[in-house]
Design brief:
23% of the residues lie in helices and 26% in strands. The chain is of the alpha/beta class. α1 packs parallel to α2. The protein binds NADP nicotinamide-adenine-dinucleotide phosphate (NAP).
């Protein structure tokens, strides 16, 4: 379908497989090709056209509902990235707004369809980023093992270098890993953590300087970054105005009290609360709110559509 990728026509594929191949092919094309300045009329066989004002447009719209829904959800993430990084964050939370119990148990807040979605998001990203507490509590692998697609580079925030070298991201060799810490903790002979490379960053207001972090990641060629938690880390990026898209998966679950999801500065008046443009997707029993943080809902028609993945 797209030159240089391995999409082939032949026996009909299950809709999910077919859609995922197209999504990966178009994401790969956008990654390799400068498409910002003018419409790209023919990225391959003429079936898909890139239009800067509309995104990817198909000559023949998908008719299978599963294929259509997957294309709807993921094609906006297959757009070319301009300057810097394009940042998407995700949290899976209970109906009462928690992402884990008070002692940090988060296996699993959301169901298998949303977990598969996380693996797809990783596959569409150059880097997947988590905070210190998530690395400690979950010891995640952050790979794409549930879907076809390359593992992203794993980016772990650890300001004080308190994480142990035994964690899987530092030992399993499944993908490159960057450990990002206060530059005061990097010195000759202390520039590795297990198999990970250590990146020293400036500190701003007692925290890692996230703007400097993104500049560093962009310099390394990591432009599509997926922030996978936890709540403190996603909140820090959101508060700093560094997120382009926020995905909140809400599970029909009541935790009562626990680790909160978003914690952001509160406006005094409800009228001043943010109302980003939103799309709504159903993932098994969970609902995914896909928020475009660069557009307010007042600026576009609010037409959430319930999708089934
Ligand atoms: N349901 C989900 O979607 C989901 C996803 C991921 C994790 N989890 C769960 O959530 C819990 C962890 O979440 P969490 O909110 O407690 O912690 P977190 O976001 O994983 O980590 C927060 C820590 O990262 C460090 N950090 C470094 N630079 C930072 C910066 N610029 N801004 C903010 N923090 C920075 C801070 O440590 P320093 O003080 O050392 O700087 C901070 O304490 C775990 O229980 C995990 O299982 C759930």
């Amino acid at each position: 379908m797209v030159r240089g990728d391995t999409v082939e026509y032949g026996a009909p594929l299950p809709a999910e497989t077919r859609a995922w191949r197209v999504i990966r092919a178009l994401a790969g094309y956008a990654r390799r090709t400068a498409m910002d300045s003018r419409p790209c009329e023919d990225p391959g066989d003429g079936h898909w056209t890139w239009r800067p004002d509309q995104g990817w447009v198909a000559a023949r719209p998908a008719t299978d509902p599963v294929e259509r829904d997957l294309l709807d959800l993921y094609l906006p993430l297959c757009a070319p990235v301009g300057d810097g990084c394009r940042m998407t964050a995700h949290l899976g939370q209970s109906l009462d707004g928690y992402i884990a119990t008070a002692n940090g148990d988060s296996c699993f807040v959301t169901g298998p369809d949303n977990i598969r979605h996380l693996h797809r998001m990783r596959a569409l990203s150059d880097g997947v980023l988590v905070g210190t507490e998530t690395a400690v509590r979950d010891d995640p692998r952050l790979t794409t093992r549930l879907v076809p697609g390359a593992n992203p580079v794993r980016v772990i925030l650890d300001r004080q270098r308190r994480l142990g070298s035994h964690l899987r991201v530092f030992t399993d060799g499944a993908a490159a890993t960057l450990l990002c810490c206060d530059r005061a903790h990097v010195s000759a002979g202390r520039d590795r953590q297990g198999q990970a490379r250590v990146i020293g960053l400036p500190i701003r207001d007692g925290r890692l300087d996230l703007t400097a972090l993104l500049e560093t990641l962009a310099d390394l060629g990591l432009r599509r970054i997926f922030v996978e938690g936890g709540g403190a880390t996603v909140s820090a990026f959101l508060t700093a105005g560094l997120l382009d898209r926020l995905q909140l998966a809400v599970a029909p679950l009541l935790i009562g009290t626990g680790r909160p999801g978003l914690r952001i500065p509160a406006p005094e008046r409800l009228a001043d609360a943010r109302r980003p443009a939103v799309r709504l997707f159903r993932m098994g029993a969970d609902l995914l709110y896909d928020l475009d943080l660069r557009r307010e809902s007042a600026a576009v028609p609010l037409t959430p559509v319930t999708r089934v993945l």
